[in-house]
Amino acid sequence: MDKIIISGLQVESLIGVYEWEREAPTSLLLDVEISTDLQRAADSDNVADTIDYAAVAELLMVTAKQASFELLEALASKLIDTLFSHFPVQQISMTVIKPGILPTARQVAVMLTRSR
Ligand SMILES: Nc1nc2c(c(=O)[nH]1)N=C([C@H](O)[C@@H](O)CO)CN2
To answer: Where's the Dihydroneopterin aldolase/epimerase domain (predicted)?
Structure first.
């Protein structure tokens, strides 16, 4: 299956289990893989025949900004559901990365893969 991939998309979201995490939005990074048939766009060379990755990125940024969850898992699920409701895609893999939150790790992340 063909894929559209967005890597390292920076978003802001109110996220975290602890009180101190819920006082202000946190910067997160998203890696997204969207499985969809790209043959029509490959033939036509027309953005109207594909999923515009700029529109995907904008939707992810707005949705994350409006969200308020404790767990990365819950945010990842919400972002996937939102993409499914706006775009005709078969499968989405979503990695939500929280940099610098653990003193002994560069970053932590969850990855969810969901199909229609
Ligand atoms: N599996 C998860 N574990 C934890 C999460 C999470 O989102 N998913 N979050 C936290 C805290 O919010 C963390 O950011 C600070 O310790 C802990 N564990």
So the answer is: 4-114
